[in-house]
Q: What sequence folds into this?
C-alpha cells in the first residue's frame, strides 16, 4: 500500500484511448473519454486517470506540475 499517491514519482502523462465501463450504482457513468491525462502509476491504482481529459500532452504536463506543486504545498 502506498501513502503518497500524488507524489511526482507516482504520476505520469499519457494518452488514453478511453473506457466505457458502464454505470456504477448511484454514481453515474464512470468511464473516460479518449485524450491526454495525468495517471497514477502506484501499485494500488496503476493507470487510473487523476485529471479530466486534456486537449494536448503539453496541457497534461502543466496539470501534472500543478498537482505536484499542490501536493508539496499541502504536505501530502
A:
Amino acid at each position: 500500500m502506498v501513502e503518497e499517491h500524488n507524489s511526482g514519482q507516482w504520476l505520469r502523462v499519457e494518452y488514453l484511448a478511453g473506457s466505457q465501463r458502464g454505470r456504477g450504482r448511484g454514481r453515474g457513468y464512470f468511464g473516460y473519454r479518449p485524450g491526454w491525462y495525468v495517471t497514477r502509476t502506484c501499485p494500488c491504482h496503476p493507470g487510473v486517470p487523476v485529471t479530466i481529459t486534456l486537449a494536448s500532452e503539453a496541457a497534461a504536463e502543466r496539470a501534472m506540475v500543478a498537482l505536484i506543486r499542490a501536493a508539496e504545498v499541502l504536505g501530502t
Observations:
- Residues 23-29 have pLDDT under 50 and may be disordered.
- The chain has one domain: 8-74.
- The first strand starts at residue 11 and ends at 16.
- The two ends are 15 Å apart (CA to CA).
